[in-house]
């Protein structure tokens, strides 16, 4: 069996859904952040696969993926910083305890 | 890339330069008020460059990554004005910080820089990078106070925002995969060639468009992607709340308008499909915003829901753009004018709130009792802005609503306009509750509410524009139409 575009797309769709499930179901803020990274990496797979099979002569998808990685790193850095700040003031990173404000 | 193209993004470059300058000066200068002055100077220089380019012909630069056209310039000016007013209004608030005042101003400038690029971006990659630049700065600003509420707001904003941008990216990846391009005009060419079959015949494109709407919907805070709004608005520093509610939303609408009109606007069947989708979302958004706002007791939260409702009215313009399918630019110019009027009105309201809440140290609506006696001018300004948000004469809000609704009626969205008018009546209830508390109830104490000259200047400018746009709208409508005209109609 040869590996084709659809295999990559299915892999990335599955990864994306795993990430989304994690974001919706996990309680630890750090784990939620990790799940977001899984979603972004799923997107990277899609981008590179499309680039390889749809426009093999160009590198558009790969370039896009590099931008996504760089931005994801910045986002993770800010995310961790905010989680540290909230841990210092609350002593917990449990997302369900962050309920000072609702309705 | 030709070096001479750099001069076409001078507004952005100068702003970036001033942001870096603020960070540098922060190291040496003890008197932090200077930094606010430098930031304002940066915004003025940038606005000067933007104004100089107004007459220039439309060009695409950096291999079609960024467009320099009147539409982008209009938004750049709007964003610069909003950022300037926010910085003026931040002074009292920020001077209470012991540390990181320079970073505060620099981050506001950087996120403005990102939003200006958002308004001009014409490629999926540049749209994504610009969007993240503005968002990441705003995540930091939202949690800037580092107290419990503020960090909670920042974390909620970051997590929801990161998921939204992942969803948006997945949509972009699908659109890219289906068409093989990332530049909006190239994608439009490919989609133009698709057989006329309706969206259901090409599920990948349908999924891509839905994911794009979900990602952008977070930025403009439309239902069902609005759940972060009230929490973040309540917890973030008040000037940042004002900035989020105006600038971030304006930049979001700029991107949506450009992506959907340029990319998916050309085939009529596609344009009608997403036009109707936005019409339905708009109806739900304004209803949810207005109904939930009724029960709020915290004024920042009230304005959170009110801004969701206003996003609903703005989306009437988007729906009109879709339904018009390129025949005229009523939707676009209506949307631009509404955004301008919403920007000055909401900023005005927030500046008054900053002045009052900073003094009485409370965001509860009940604590605003008797403000008409304690701070008559502030209360008057807030009342004017609330009247404008409701959409009553003689203010900008009325003209903006008439303009955007008349475009919708023209393109067969009468049902949506009826829902919009009913919603305006609902909104009058909670806006005027604030007015009633301020003027008719007895004050808890007699103390006056002092405010700095910077804040008063900003508030005066906002009120002036609310009245100008309401009394002599012709000139501003002309500018909005000129900016909308680039969409070839």
Q: Specify the oligomeric state.
A: heterodimer
What's the Cα radius of gyration of chain B? 21 Å
User: Span from first to last CA of chain B?
Assistant: 30 Å
Instruction: Tell the overall outline of chain A.
Output: elongated
User: Which percent bin holds the helix content of chain A?
Assistant: over 70%
Largest interface: A-B, 43 and 42 residues
Pairing-aware structural class of the strands and helices of chain B?
mainly alpha
Straight-line distance between termini of chain A: 54 Å
Q: Which descriptor suits the 3D outline of chain B?
A: globular
Uncertain runs of chain B with pLDDT below 50, 5 residues or more?
none
Number of strands of chain B: 2
Rounded to an integer, what's the Rg of chain A over CA atoms?
Answer: 17 Å
Strand percentage of chain B lies at under 5%
Query: In order across it, which strands form the biggest sheet of chain B?
Result: 1-2
The arrangement of helices and strands of chain A along the chain is HHH
Number of helices of chain A: 3
- Runs of chain A in which pLDDT lies below 50 for 5 or more consecutive residues are none
What does the main sheet of chain A amount to?
none
Beta-strand proportion of chain A: under 5%
Spell out the key features of this protein.
heterodimer; A: 103 residues; mainly alpha; 3 helices; elongated; B: 489 residues
